[in-house]
Amino acid sequence: MPTVDPYTNAYVKEALDLSKADGADVTGESYAPMEVTLEEGCK
């Protein structure tokens, strides 16, 4: 029987840490909805 957990978040954690170090908002704290106006005819 394997002694290592087959599921890991190691790669996700590393990616999030690298993104945070680059200044990315990985938690959505700076999220602000934007206003979008839909125009007929996709122009």
Question: Any overview of this molecule?
Answer:
It is a single chain. With 43 residues, the protein is an all-alpha fold. It is built from 1 helix and no strands. It is elongated, with a radius of gyration of 20 Å. The model has no long low-confidence stretch (mean pLDDT 89).
What general form does the structure show? elongated
| Order of SSEs | H
Sheet of most strands: none
Number of strands: 0
Protein name: ABC transporter substrate-binding protein
Organism: Rhodococcus navarretei
In short:
With 43 residues, the chain is mostly helical. The protein has one helix and no strands.
Which key features would you list for this structure?
ABC transporter substrate-binding protein, 1 helix, about 30% helix
Detail the topology: elements first, then pairings:
Elements (H helix, E strand, L loop, with lengths): L9 H12 L22
